[in-house]
Amino acid sequence: MLNVVFLGLVSFFADISSEMVYPIIPLYLTSVFGATPIIIGVIEGIAESIASLLKVYSGYITDKYKKKKRIAFFGYSTGLIYKLVLIVASTWTGILGARIIDRIGKGIRTAPRDVMVSESADKNKMGTAFGIHKALDMAGSAIGILLAFLLLSNANGDFNYKKLFLFSAIPALFSLLMFVFIKEKKDGHKIKEREPFWKNIKQLDGQLKLYLLVTFVFTLGNSSNAFLLLRAKNVGFNDNSVILLYFIYSATASLLAIPLGKKSDKIGRKKLLVSGYVVFAVVYLGFAFAINKTIMVGMFILYGVYTAMIAGVERAFIAEISPFELRGTMLGLHATIIGVALLPASLIAGTLWTYFGASAPFMFGAGLSLSAACVLFLLMKNSINNET
């Protein structure tokens, strides 16, 4: 598990860097550039979709050439470039360009990193391994958010966004240094010519195909977290408090990721995934109908519970039921399907917010999440009952 810890530390430092910036971006766009929810939806949708569309190809290249560590390192290095572009960007289109650079890196690094995590643990400990990685990942997020909160709190109304972007580059450098300690497992198989990744999809079993379909439906209602931050501000939180709410969410997810990962090793992945979709629906209904700050705080805590239930467990599930030689491709394909849905998801959310009110996108997301939970439960009922 030591390799998993070092991979987790890569994500830990990368997320300190990213989350010092991420919760600030919607505030930066609205305060400095006068961006509307639709513009924020366009920026987040395009950026996240580009990232996810790259993930399946990155996974395919990982499976083909077995250069997992090298590919992941290159992907993480773009996080440093992202911060530098934010410093020089002077329009919302410049911010879009910076976000695209950052998400390209995420698209490249995710599949090879996840394959290395899966290869560093026994099959019956895979949930624990991904839980450890997710816990460190979310701990970095929490620290980054807290740093952003402290800097914003001490700004006295004159916050220097670009100075924050510069400071956020420091942990990005530490993230890259962690690669010195990571050992890449060699599978010993000779690299051979392979069919294009889209032809490999035919080799998937029905269970995995079904889950990928359910993921797509669910993601259509799961818009960017930027809308959660805007909703909190809409209820009455100021910029400082919004960032603190995001810290509470990340800290909750970090604390619960390992125990819930271990739980999935014992009771089965699909039971936890179905439950996670139901929790998400409750969270989004809470965001839709929140009438005071207390409810909003509770929803951010519960959103952290949802993330701990889903994020690591679904990756363990995909790795577990994928053919070994296609593991990177399938992890990448899962992320790509999410990305295909993310662009319309964020655009839908921004449009619903603008024309039907702040509650509309969350009601829409809750409905799709419940639908996904029902489909996953009904169509996988037999395998859930028989899960080992």
Secondary-structure topology with pairs:
Blueprint: H1 2-21, H2 24-32, H3 37-65, H4 68-88, H5 92-119, H6 126-153, H7 161-167, H8 169-177, H9 197-200, H10 206-219, H11 226-235, H12 239-267, H13 269-289, H14 293-321, H15 327-356, H16 360-379, H17 381-385
Outline the structure in words.
The protein has 388 residues and is mostly helical. The protein has a single domain, classed as Up-down Bundle (Growth Hormone, Chain: A). Helix 4 packs antiparallel against helix 7. The longest helix has 30 residues. The chain is globular, with a radius of gyration of 20 Å. The mean pLDDT is 82.
Strand content: under 5%
SSE order, as H and E?
A: HHHHHHHHHHHHHHHHH
Unreliable parts:
none
Please give the alpha-carbon distance between the first and last residues: 22 Å
> How much helix is in the residues?
over 70%
**Mind telling me the C-alpha Rg?**
20 Å
Q: Kindly report the name of the CATH homologous superfamily.
A: MFS general substrate transporter like domains
CATH topology: Growth Hormone, Chain: A
- Number of helix segments? 17
> Based on helices, strands and strand pairing, what is the structural class?
mainly alpha
CATH architecture: Up-down Bundle
Largest beta-sheet details: none
CATH class: Mainly Alpha
In total, how many domains does the architecture comprise? Answer: 1
Shape verdict: globular
Mean pLDDT: 82
Number of beta-strand segments: 0
Short description:
With 388 residues, this protein is mostly helical. The protein contains 17 helices and no strands. It has one domain: Growth Hormone, Chain: A (Up-down Bundle), CATH 1.20.1250.20.
